[in-house]
Amino acid sequence: MSTKSLSIVERRRKPESVRKEALAIGRRLLIERGPAAITLKAIGAEMAMSHANLIHHFGSAEAFQSQLKNMMVEELTRTVTALIRHGGDEPSVAEIVDTVFSAYGPGGMGRLVAWSAMTNAADETHGLEQAMNELVAVLEPLIEGPEAKTHARARVVLVSILALGDSLIGQSLAKCLGSDTGETRQLTVWILEQLRKAGR
């Protein structure tokens, strides 16, 4: 494609459409290849758009990365919130675990958290606290006793850490040990059920 035809294509694209597609590509690159693959040049190549045009839409590579992080956390928050409202019924422990593990694994949250840690941006929550508090709200009704909220918070920490670890090294460990890739999810459900029975 010539520079002239590329320019025409770029002018025809609506800003919101460009941002949405670029963020979707950025997320896919993060999940498939890791944070090093997320460059505006690589994203522009897939969209048949110039690096300069993407800078125009996002301001900078750093601003793009920040928007990508915010988008992924907002999706997790919406998913967790939907658990509370689903049919008016309390979600099962297995549903909660599946939601969190799916967000960290196929959803890319594990890569996102690791990326933030590697770039010394671990203090950038990007709204993650809202998603975590929503998850506490989901778990709290499933726990009895005056310390339900405290125990719910502890469960959120436990599930998040296990989901993070599984998203980063779960497949490798399963391959080394000859185990099922879903064992960590099953173990997490079992641990939460045991804590529930023990009133912890």
SSE blueprint:
Elements: H1 3-12, H2 15-33, H3 40-47, H4 51-58, H5 61-85, H6 93-104, H7 109-118, H8 128-139, H9 148-177, H10 183-197
Structure characterization notes:
The protein has 200 residues and is mainly alpha-helical. The protein folds into 2 domains: 1-59, Arc Repressor Mutant, subunit A, CATH 1.10.10; 66-200. Helices cover 74% and strands 0% of the residues. It contains 10 helices and no strands. The chain has helices at 3-12, 15-33, 40-47, 51-58, 61-85, 93-104, 109-118, 128-139, 148-177, 183-197. The longest helix has 30 residues, at 148-177. The protein is elongated.
In terms of DSSP E residues, the strand content is under 5%
Number of domains: 2
First-residue to last-residue Cα separation: 63 Å
Strand tally is: 0
Estimate percent helicity. over 70%
How does the major sheet shape up?
none
> What's the mean pLDDT score?
81
Rounded Rg: 20 Å
Oligomer status? single chain
What general form does the structure show? elongated
Q: Which regions are unreliable across 5 or more consecutive residues at pLDDT < 50?
A: 1-11
Helical region count? 10
Helix and strand pattern:
HHHHHHHHHH
The class by helix and strand makeup works out as mainly alpha
